[in-house]
């Protein structure tokens, strides 16, 4: 019997179905036309085959759907040519065929379109309807002031400012900012007027020993006329002076030609007027180029992978080139800071390529961010708090940034991260699922307006309730170690567990070593549990004997029970 299973499960209860079980044919790219039933709730599309010889299950969050189109018309005559074509953001395309009589397609199309794009139809996002409950709330995992204190701030060079508490300095920045100690609030407002979207340079991370910092911001509004702003120039000088860096290095994520072109729309980059500063362009392409590259990648990984032309096809997407440029830029940032030089990182608006560079550099520099909870803090801080375009104008979630770098770190340094690959997959899946409030909207101010923290559940509530699922058994804590991965095309490979996971013929299996290690850990835990039970039993017995009349015994009498277990050890 041939069995094909393509599934992703979410173990919690949805709200009431909005489209009951309906007979339908799934055009499976691996098994051909498969008869079954489809159920649609306001969260997911669920399909299960009814064929005895082929088992196919689909469980697709509606938030992962980017497009729903009708396939064929009333006059279509080909077999299974009349139905729906669904494009997903997780690299899948799903095709369903229906009977042409009645309004079978219209009903399912309208339901899908309505609940896959709820904001366009005046409906709430599913995250606001979820009834999930967890023992711990993930909304408290990141506390800005506590994170700054962990880094050793404030100090005599840097202070904490609440100038943005009402989001009137910058509506896409968080309320708590770390700025040079010598800067005044009026200085910050003047600098904001010269930075795109008011996103001024602020401290994101500081090296405890050499006090070099990673500051992030947006491009200066130089324009075609080459405008200058003395306040902005002085402000960057204050950042440089904070640890007496000889030259402040400004990393502009964009290609040089793009930065020059941005002058036509009022943007630009720091010129020679910025004294004691050097400008380095990192040549990372913009979101439009990334999106086109991702589209090409999707074409070669789904549904079929052509083995004979795989390398040339992958090269033609330029996806790994983008990954390499991001990784190379982050290495430069980390190396510069590790050497004692402060840096400023920006792209155009400072909330896409900038976040990629700063977060990866911090993963290299700070072992805290390599722990399970530290990684959650890093995402909350660099991506969510500082703003990122998670949502488009229609309210749908999207993100086309390269997804491989964090996973590559795990390949290069298998013992350096407390979390495993499953955590990365979980985060990416829920980037789109709309099950949690964590990645809703683009910035804190909008999340506050929509009461995200009080009315939705955090993804970290789920993660921290099932910690064992996300732990790396090889993790060895090392504080102070800086990680430097190799940013070379010869060492980069596609993340198969994410990009090709829907193909049942290409299954990534857990390594035998990792599997055996997990078995040994489970065995150790079992022995420790038995030991604890024996010790509790022993304690109870000793207490009982102490409270009972004790007959006279000689010194050669039997040893007390506690000594019977003195040499009990686990084999690990």
From TrEMBL:
Q: Which GO terms describe its biological process?
A: mitochondrion distribution; muscle cell cellular homeostasis; negative regulation of autophagosome assembly; phosphatidylinositol dephosphorylation
* Region Disordered, residue ranges: 539-572
Q: Which residues bind substrate?
A: 286-287, 347-353
How is this protein situated with respect to the membrane?
Peripheral membrane protein
- Organism in which the protein naturally occurs: Haplochromis burtoni
Tagged with keyword Lyase: no
Q: What is its EC number?
A: 3.1.3.95
Q: Where is the composition biased (Low complexity)?
A: 547-562
The entry's cellular-component GO terms read: filopodium; late endosome; plasma membrane; ruffle; sarcomere
Highest taxon of the lineage:
Eukaryota
For this protein, the record's Pfam families field holds: GRAM (PF02893), Myotub-related (PF06602)
Question: Active-site residues?
Answer: 347 (phosphocysteine intermediate)
**Listed name of the protein:** Myotubularin
Query: Where would I find the Tyrosine specific protein phosphatases domain in this sequence?
Result: 317-363
Cellular localisation: Cell membrane; Cell projection, Filopodium; Cell projection, Ruffle; Cytoplasm, Myofibril, Sarcomere
């Amino acid at each position: 019997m041939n069995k094909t299973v393509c599934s992703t499960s979410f173990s919690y209860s949805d709200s009431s179905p909005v489209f009951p079980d309906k007979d339908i044919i799934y055009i499976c790219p691996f098994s051909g036309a498969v008869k079954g039933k489809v159920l649609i709730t306001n969260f997911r599309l669920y399909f299960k085959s009814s064929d005895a010889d082929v088992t196919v299950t689909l469980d697709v969050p509606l938030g992962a759907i980017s497009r729903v189109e009708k396939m064929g018309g009333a006059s279509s005559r080909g077999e299974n040519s009349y139905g729906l074509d669904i494009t997903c953001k997780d690299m899948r395309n799903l095709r369903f065929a229906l009977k042409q009589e009645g309004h079978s397609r219209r009903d399912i199309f309208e339901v899908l379109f309505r609940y896959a794009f709820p904001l366009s139809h005046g409906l709430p996002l599913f995250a606001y309807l979820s009834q999930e409950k967890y023992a711990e709330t993930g909304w408290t995992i990141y506390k800005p002031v506590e994170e700054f204190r962990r880094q050793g701030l404030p100090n005599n060079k840097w202070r904490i400012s609440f100038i943005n508490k009402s989001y009137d300095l910058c509506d896409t920045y968080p309320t708590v900012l770390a700025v040079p100690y010598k800067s005044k609030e009026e200085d910050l407002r003047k600098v904001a007027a010269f930075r795109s979207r008011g996103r001024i340079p602020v401290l994101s991370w500081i090296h405890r020993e050499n006090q070099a910092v990673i500051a992030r911001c947006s491009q200066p509004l130089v324009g075609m006329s080459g405008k200058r702003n003395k306040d902005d120039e002085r402000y960057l000088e204050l950042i440089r002076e904070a640890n007496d860096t000889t030259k402040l290095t400004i990393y502009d994520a964009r290609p040089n030609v793009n930065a020059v072109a941005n002058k036509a729309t009022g943007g630009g980059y720091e010129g020679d007027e910025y004294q004691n500063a050097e400008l380095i362009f990192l040549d990372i392409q913009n979101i439009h180029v990334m999106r086109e590259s991702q589209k090409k990648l999707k074409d070669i990984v789904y549904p079929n992978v052509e083995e004979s032309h795989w390398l040339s096809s992958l090269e033609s997407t330029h996806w790994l080139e983008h990954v390499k440029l991001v990784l190379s830029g982050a290495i430069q940032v980390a190396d510069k800071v590790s050497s004692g030089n402060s840096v400023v990182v920006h792209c155009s608006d400072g909330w896409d390529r900038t976040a990629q560079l700063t977060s990866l550099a911090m993963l290299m520099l700070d072992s805290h961010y390599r722990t399970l909870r530290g990684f959650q803090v890093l995402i909350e801080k660099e991506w969510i708090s500082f703003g990122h375009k998670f949502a488009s104008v229609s309210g749908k979630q999207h993100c086309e940034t390269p997804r491989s770098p964090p996973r590559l770190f795990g390949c290069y340094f298998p013992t350096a991260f407390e979390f495993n690959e499953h955590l990365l997959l979980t985060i990416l899946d829920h980037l789109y699922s709309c099950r949690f409030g964590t990645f809703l909207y683009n910035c804190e101010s909008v999340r506050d307006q929509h009461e995200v923290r009080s009315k939705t559940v955090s993804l970290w509530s789920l993660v921290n309730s099932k910690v064992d699922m996300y732990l790396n058994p090889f993790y060895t804590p090392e504080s102070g170690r800086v990680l430097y991965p190799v940013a070379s095309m010869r060492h980069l490979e596609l993340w198969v567990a994410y990009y090709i996971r829907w193909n049942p013929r290409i299954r990534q299996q857990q390594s035998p070593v990792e599997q055996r290690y997990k078995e040994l850990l489970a065995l150790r835990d079992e022995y420790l549990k038995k030991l604890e039970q024996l010790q509790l039993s022993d304690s109870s017995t000793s207490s009982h004997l102490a409270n009972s009349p004790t007959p006279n015994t000689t010194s050669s009498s039997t040893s007390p029970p506690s000594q019977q277990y003195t040499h009990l050890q686990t084999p690990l």
